[in-house]
Amino acid sequence: MREGSPIAKEWERLKALDSRTRAYQFETFIGTLFGQAHFAVTPSPGAGGSRQVDLLATLGDETYLVEAKWWTKKKPGEPEVAALEDRLKQTSPTVLGILVSYSGFTQGAINRVERKPRRPILLVTGEELEHAVGWSGDFLRMLRQKRDAMLVHSKTVFMSSRPLRRPARRKNKLPSSPETVVLLDGSRSKWLACEGDFGQFAFVRELPDIDWVPGSGFGVTLDVQAPATDQSGLLSLLRELSTLGWITEQSRWSIQQAENCWHGAGAEAFAEQLADWKTRYDGLRTVHHTEEFCYVDTCDELGFYSLTGQVAAHVPRMVWRTSLSFQLSGVPVDVGPLQALCDRFDTSSKLFFRPRSSDSVTRRHLGVSESIPLDVVGFVVEEDELETDPSDREWAVGVVAKNPFRRSPKARRKNPDWWPDMASDTELIICGLRSWHPLRKPKKTYRLWSCESAWTSDSLVLRPLADWDDDRGDDIVAPRSRARRDQPPKSIASLVDL
Q1: Fewest beta carbons within 10 Å, which of 7, 212, 386, 411?
Q2: What does the alpha-carbon distance between residue 361 and residue 5 come to, in Å, rounded to a whole number?
Q3: What is the mean pLDDT of residues 426-431?
Q4: Per-residue burial over 166-201, b = 16 or more CB atoms within 10 Å of its CB, e = otherwise
């Protein structure tokens, strides 16, 4: 309870009254509590038929038929629950019942509501009100947790001195990326390691332009504090995002240390590398006490989001400043998916869509005179499952190259303004390919063709795009003996006859 707030003072005043006066005013108090949670409240509505109920509370698609009782010793039992059930039968099937009793409920009342989940009735005690009064977000979250527990598990849950916990969920497998990084030595992985520094950014394959809509103006930002305090909580958060449909196969991520960084694709690989931090640290010259991470993913046609934070580089793996930053084309007409996300994470209900004040995506197309050759060290590869020729099934959709803008005291030129400073410390960059080609047909020269970048509230999202010189007339010899096709190549060079 928030001490000193008007509703909290009213709660204390109510408890100090004599039982008769208190019983009369309790109904008004419950209506005020619903009103502070932004419900539209109708006292003594006709929705309950000829039998009167205390109030009807509506917020969006949520409607509750509420009966508030105050007993000093007697607890409501099955008869009181049965009476509210009769009143619910005269309302729309979407209306839920709430029975509020300061003194709690008999076991018979609890058993009865759990036997009839088709018309759910939520039971709220005085002890729960003690913890929810004064924080409308806590009150609303409490109701929704009770509702979900009843609808999903047919269980009545009560909040005591500790917050309600969500039911344990099966650890579902996170989506993996179809991309594979293939270096010139033939090694393959879902991620790559290189020299670098701190800086929460990620190379992405696609960067939605949230301003690209018929109307004028810019996109909006929604920031959500994520409930993760350690590595286990962070991995659970990823699984929750996956369960709610917020994780796709197109995600990219990075993890940064004092002198090293790791770039990868897919939530599955991201979770594996977070958990396998000891292996990542093997052989490192310097390990800072904290590492940073940045995970970026798209969200349907709305835009994209970043998940950022810091993790202790030792046991216990504590997590700080974990947050989600959504960049959306506008305020969705249907905020249900975002509301479900906030409800699942127990975040405050007081979240805001903030309009961006400038272009969301910065673009720079390089002309011929600005052309920058890339020193390619590997490829980002995907398989074309529809390709009938197995030798052409793997396609290069991106390249891994040495960073031409890497910060160095020996650098002879200043980096251009369109290249983000945060991306100047990483040894390698990951570029998408404007024109794809079979992996077995590497090109002689790759050049940086354009660069797109955007900022979320906490991170940089970067999409360099490369192209290759048009050498389609060059003779490219077919791969070697088909008898050895099932064995991984020792190097990219082994895929072609030089």
Answers
A1: 386
A2: 43
A3: 97
A4: eeeeeeeebbebebbbbbeeeeeebbbbbebbbbbb
Question: Closest Cα to residue 431, out of 468, 457, 394?
Answer: 468
Statement to judge: residues 387 and 327 lie in one domain: no
Residue 203's pLDDT is what? 98
297 vs 227, more confident: 297
In a domain, 158, yes or no: no
Residue 458: pLDDT above 50?
yes
- Whether the per-residue pLDDT at 169 is higher than 60: the answer is no
Minimum mean pLDDT among 1-10, 50-59, 86-95: which range? 1-10
pTM given for the model: 0.68
Looking at the fold, whether 204 and 329 belong to one and the same domain comes out as yes
Tell which residue, 153, 179, 327, 342, has the closest CA to residue 253: 179
> Is 160 a member of any domain?
no
Question: Residue 390's pLDDT is what?
Answer: 78
Q: Which two tokens stand for residue 373?
A: 């050759």
Task: Using the CB atoms, write b or e for 396-416: b if 16+ within 10 Å.
Answer: bbbbbbebebbeeeeeeeeee
Query: Domain check: are 272 and 327 in the same one?
Result: yes
Give the amino acid at 397: V
Strands 62-69 and 96-101: parallel
- Helix, strand, coil abundance in the chain, percent, nearest 5: 25, 30, 45
Instruction: Tell me, yes or no, whether 291 and 424 share the same domain.
Output: no
**215 within domain boundaries:** yes
Nearest to 124 by CA among 57, 48, 70: 70
Kindly state whether residue 240 falls inside one of the protein's structural domains: yes
Compute CA distances 380 → 187, 266, 436, whole Å: 12, 13, 10
Nearest to 420 by CA among 218, 200, 192, 264: 200
284 by Cβ neighbours in 10 Å (0-12 / 13-18 / 19+) ranks as middle
Rounded-to-integer distance, Cα 52 and Cα 17, Å:
25
> Positive or negative CA dihedral for 191, 195, 198, 204?
negative
Q: What is the mean pLDDT of the chain?
A: 84
- Domain around 251: 188-361
Judgement on whether residues 256 and 356 belong to the same structural domain of the protein: yes
Tell me, yes or no, whether 100 and 63 share the same domain. yes
> Distance between CA atoms of 293 and 42, rounded to whole angstroms?
48
Q: Output the pLDDT for position 412.
A: 61
When pLDDT is cut at 50, 70 and 90, the band that residue 347 belongs to is low
Are residues 337 and 367 both part of a single domain?
no
